[in-house]
Amino acid sequence: MVKLAENEAVATGKFLRVSTQKLNLVAGLIRGKNVARALNDLQFSKRRIAIDVRKILQAGIANAENNHQLDIDRLVVKEAWVGKQIIMKRFRARARGRGARIVKPFSRITILLREEKGQE
Questions:
Q1: pTM of structure
Q2: Whole-angstrom Cα distance, residue 8 to residue 5?
Q3: Which of 36, 43, 76, 80 is most buried per CB count within 10 Å?
Q4: For the segment 80-96, what is each residue's pLDDT rounded down to a tens digit?
């Protein structure tokens, strides 16, 4: 787990059914932004996984407000990193009695929020 400063909060989403490469594109969309702007960008993103990332960001905002008593108007997405989770392995029948492997990856995302003093 990450060591948190007194002005930070974190939220983690596990077992998201998407590849890490696709999830990292959505995470890059919100890195370094104000939480209101990040929520707005995720709301209007065309990517399917943006819905789940938005829920995780809202959980991080709730953690910051309730557990750490931070001001939600001054929160910024300081970091958002993506990692691999498990991989489901399936096989599909192919010609001549062969089989082709199908991999169905899962990912995790961790969003670190920080309260910035200079924003109003």
A1: 0.91
A2: 5
A3: 80
A4: 999 999 999 999 999 99
